[in-house]
Amino acid sequence: MASKIEFVEYAAEQCRGAGEITYKKMFGDYALYCSGKIFALVCDNELFVKITEAGRGAFPDLPEKPPYDGAKNYFLVENIDDRETVEELVKLTYNSLPEPKPKKPRKSKEK
After folding, report:
1. Are residues 89 and 55 in contact, defined by beta-carbon separation less than 8 angstroms?
2. What is the spatial distance between Cα 42 and Cα 67, in angstroms, rounded to a whole number?
3. β-bridge partners, 48
4. Is 47 exposed, middle or buried (0-12, 13-18, 19+ CB in 10 A)?
5. Do 42 and 8 meet the contact criterion of CB atoms below 8 Å apart?
6. Which residue among 30, 64, 83, 94 sits deepest, i.e. has the most Cβ atoms within 10 Å of its Cβ?
7. Which among 16, 57, 10 has a CA at the least distance from the CA of 30?
8. Is the dihedral of CA 79, 88, 101, 20 positive or negative?
9. pLDDT tens across 49-97, in order?
10. What is the chain written as a DSSP string?
11. What is the pLDDT of residues 28-45, one digit of tens each?
12. Residues near 94 by beta carbon (within 8 Å), at least 6 away in sequence
């Protein structure tokens, strides 16, 4: 089941205090980005945040679950309405993730 855009927008809004939050549709669900770094997925109207040691240390009781079949575990944020906790988790995750690799320039097609 694909995620509803209203849920994605709400999830993004709950994270806004952590930085510039954007999202992109991917295979019927969505990837969430904080200042250019992918930090979470929204699948089946659930918010899944990448697991980091900082996140696990601050929130050891967060459940872990794969967002889709064959994926590794992510934190499952069950109480998305708790904006303060969501923002703190996103900040910790963002700070723990490496900078995105620069995109390679596309080769132009010559005729």
Report:
1. yes
2. 8
3. 41, 76
4. buried
5. yes
6. 30
7. 10
8. positive
9. 999 999 999 999 999 999 999 999 999 999 999 999 999 999 999 999 9
10. -PPPHHHHHHHHHHHGGGS-EEEEEETTEEEEEETTEEEEEEETTEEEE---HHHHHH-TT--EE-SSTTPPPEEEES-TT-HHHHHHHHHHHHHHSPPPPPPPPPPPPP-
11. 899 999 999 999 999 999
12. 18, 19, 34, 35, 37, 39
Position 30: which residue type? Y
Q: Which two tokens stand for residue 55?
A: 């996140």
In this structure, what token pair is assigned to residue 36?
A: 């250019």
Tokens of 68: 């889709």
CA distance 62 to 64: 7
Question: Which token pair is 13?
Answer: 């809004």
The structure tokens listed for 92 are 């910790």
Q: What angle do CA 14, 93, 11 make, to 5 degrees?
A: 20
Tokens of 66: 């794969």
